[in-house]
Design brief:
Blueprint (H helix, E strand, L loop, with lengths): L9 E4 L3 H9 L5 E4 L7 H4 L2 H8 L3 E4 L2 E6 H9 L11
Parallel strand pairs: 1-2
Antiparallel strand pairs: 3-4
Length: about 90
């Protein structure tokens, strides 16, 4: 039985499109792009507080199924480190 060698995954910031394609996409080399969405308005606007204020009293819908937990409650669980384990996904 042969074991695959671990692959080093680099973190890169500010790659141009051409650099990404030539250095990572075409040779199929994994890379973690850092700062890739820093310029998106959503990365600053969509905070847990934003979702709690605007959608906190909305029931959570996952995969088209509405659950009994409110979005505000689910955010509190995620922030507390409990994830969505309390939601019955069956």
């Amino acid at each position: 039985m042969s074991l695959a060698k671990p692959v080093q995954i680099l973190r890169k910031a500010n790659l141009t499109h051409d650099e990404f394609v030539e250095e990572y996409l075409l040779p199929l080399r994994p890379v973690i792009l850092t700062e890739a969405i820093a310029h998106w308005v959503a990365s600053r606007k969509w905070t847990p507080s934003f979702f709690r204020e605007h959608y906190g009293s909305t029931f959570l819908t996952i995969d088209g199924r509405q659950h009994t937990m409110l979005i505000g409650e689910s955010l509190s669980q995620i922030i507390a480190g409990n994830g969505l384990d309390l939601i019955d996904m069956d």
